[in-house]
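Backbone geometry:

***
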Amino acid sequence: MSAEQMLAKYEQIEARFGLPKQDAAGAVAAFIAGNYMAYRDVDFPDSSFPSLVAQMREVIGANSAFAEGSQADKRTLYEEMAVVGMQMALQRDELMRKPDAKARAQMMKMGKRHLEQFLKFDVTGLLITQRGLTVQ
């Protein structure tokens, strides 16, 4: 699936959750959710997404580099986060339909790596609940 198709899939999520179009917080939440699904090989409950979006909105709002960034940079962040998040979630869905142990192990490893590169900490104790992202 192309990046444009992944972005179109993500736009359906924006609409379903009533998020503003091209909302960076929603895209970052989708990135985290998709990679969390891949890393933990679990479903992501819809009920947890709004809290994660709100949490990411706070984080982004407090980030002066983001606030000072150009519209082009913000658009790039939005697109990259949305596309990678969707890619990881859809890869997991595909592996649920057509199991492949080797591909599953690679997906889990990649999901963990993406999360750790973005969050900048060991995600072994990471949980996402209706309260948002927490670490045990």
